[in-house]
Design a protein that fits this description.
Elements (H helix, E strand, L loop, with lengths): L10 E3 L3 H11 L3 E3 L2 H6 L5 E4 L6 H10 L3 E5 L6 H14 L3 E4 L6 H11 L6 E11 L16 H17 L5 E8 L6 E9 L4 E7 L1 E12 L3 E4 L11 E6 L10 E6 L4 H15 L7 H20 L6
Parallel strand pairs: 1-2, 3-4, 4-5, 6-9
Antiparallel strand pairs: 6-10, 7-8, 8-9, 10-11, 11-12, 12-13
Amino acid sequence: MQQSDWSEIAAIASRELGKAQEAARTLGIPKAYGSYEELLADPEIEAVYNPLPNNLHVPWSIRAAQAGKHVLCEKPLSMNAAEARSLIEARDRAGVKICEAFMVRTHPRWLRTRELIREGRIGELRLISGLFSYFNRDPRNVRNLHEYGGGALLDLGCYPVTLSRFLFGQEPARVMGSLERDPEMKTDRLTSAILEFPAGQSVFTCSTQLAYHQRMFLLGTKGRIEIERPINPLTGEPSRILIDDNPGDPTGSGIAAEVIPICDQFTIQGDLFSRAIREGGEVPVPLEDSIQNMAAIDAIFRSAESRKWEIP
């Protein structure tokens, strides 16, 4: 975001002043605060980025809104849909912008992929398939703390949920989930889900205890699309959309690549968020969209317990 044309990183806050000052020196940030309250009290701060652990997203986003600050809140927006809904009232009462930081939704390659689907390049989109994993079993890491909202579905699974809704342009009618919890940390370490949309299905697996990998395929009635490194492409290189509109050829001779120029999705996200504030437009991922996303995630968790299809 420090590379954004539309925003300036003016301050950073930590619960420990020394840590904030060290980060400020390292990153070239003018101000450092030893508490979040001090930053929110600064009249020169117009907006905050909330990257705290998942269980603190809503409480501190509400406090920021009450202080008159616009909020870019890290994904997932909340621990559940009910909690996410509480942000609507805080946003509307304070008259501020609140946006969930799903940077993938702002990357040109995903915008172009949605265009390709709408243009019918692969026929009718019928299936989205994804795999997202890394290995992290550090019990002190916030991603492995159950009470902090850790686990695979909230950390990784939120991406295929939001992207599937984005690409189908629909909400899932019902979902099925299966998860395996770490016996000690109680977080879900291996989770799979099926989201049934009116137009097709999305199927994905995510894990915090598998070898690092990320993949996403879109299959239509006349072709398929693959996105390389779908969550976090390399920022120093162009990214590619692989399109196979001759799927009957097993050699892959029909695969073509659309190259997306070098860009940083976090910079783009920061610019779009700031422009929405300056120009009075809509943020990239508004709260209404985030609530729908959390409702689908809630239903996956319920399904894993009930062993039945659940309606978001």
